[in-house]
Amino acid sequence: MDEVFVRKSTEDPKFVLDWLKGFKSDIGYWEPFVTDVSHGCDADVEVMGFANVAQQTDFLDNYREASYDRFFWDTPEQGQKDLPHVAGAHSMGAFLLLEHLMDDEKAKIFRNNYGALFLANPFLGDPYHDRILCRAFSKTLGRHKPTGSTKLERWLGPEITDFNENPTHMQSITLHDEAAKLLAAIQEKGGLSPVLDGMPIAIIAGENDPACDNEKIYALGEVIGVDVYTYLDTAHNPLLCHSDALDHFKSWAFNAAKYAHPKPPVYEAATYEAAREPV
């Protein structure tokens, strides 16, 4: 699985932000975010995404492996050893990270690497594919059509005018069903790994998000004890379209980095390879 990156460094960074973007959207959309956060916070910022998988539906295991490599490293990159590290993710990227953080051994590595976590519009299922009629349509007539492109969707929910990079219906069902399992597991367990207790975590959502079911995001926040901040009149990515959301994130990241001061490992964690088991 090929990964794609947008990076920005400063001369004297105060911290490192490692970010994982969502499914299929162009990595170039994140360039203004990377530049703004890097300059505004004096941070080294890197956003990672995945190459477009067209209409494939068997992508998740490769994405899980790539996301593991992203956050569960043994040694930081050269020049970043003594800097605080903050992690963040959007949409499907947040779903993948949450999956990993259910596992105690992975959580120990993550906690040794990062001091804070930001989840933007975490994908835990969409409001469309919970409906029996919609699922039936998606598995038959709409299999390879982009989500948001059919008359049925426009009739049932908010219209999506730009759907060229959206997942197909079968890709959405794949993600939706795996995300539903994850949320159920989090609720049954009563949270993520207890290793993360005390770590600063922030969650945001968009009021009119057509891709994420906000009720499920609120359910996540409730079970892990984090308030979800919802930006009004925004959709699937407030950070890229709402100046208040971006300012909120920069303030949060700058302050979270103070908490994430460089420190020796606080957990006797499994090695990178030993913890690298399927979710």
Structural features, described:
- It is built from 10 helices and 7 strands.
- It is α/β, with parallel strands linked by helices.
- It has helices spanning 31-41, 60-71, 92-100, 104-113, 132-139, 151-156, 169-189, 214-224, 238-241, 243-259; strands spanning 3-8, 15-20, 43-50, 85-90, 117-120, 201-206, 228-231.
- The mean pLDDT is 83.
- It is globular and about 50 Å long.
- It has a 7-stranded mixed β-sheet, with helices on both faces.
- Helix content is 39%, strand content 14%.
Please give a handful of descriptors for the protein shown.
single chain, 279 residues, alpha/beta, Rossmann fold, seven-stranded mixed β-sheet
Short description:
The protein has 279 residues and is α/β, with parallel strands linked by helices. It has ten helices and seven strands.
Corresponding CATH architecture:
3-Layer(aba) Sandwich
Let me know the average pLDDT. Answer: 83
Beta fraction of the residues?
5-15%
CATH topology: Rossmann fold
Distance between the amino and carboxyl termini = 18 Å
Low-confidence stretches: none
Q: CATH class, anyone?
A: Alpha Beta
Overall shape: globular
- Class derived from helix and strand content: alpha/beta
Secondary structure: helix percent: 25-40%
In the CATH hierarchy, what is the superfamily? Alpha/Beta hydrolase fold, catalytic domain
What is the CA-atom radius of gyration, in angstroms?
Answer: 18 Å
The sequence of SSEs as H and E is EEHEHEHHEHHHEHEHH
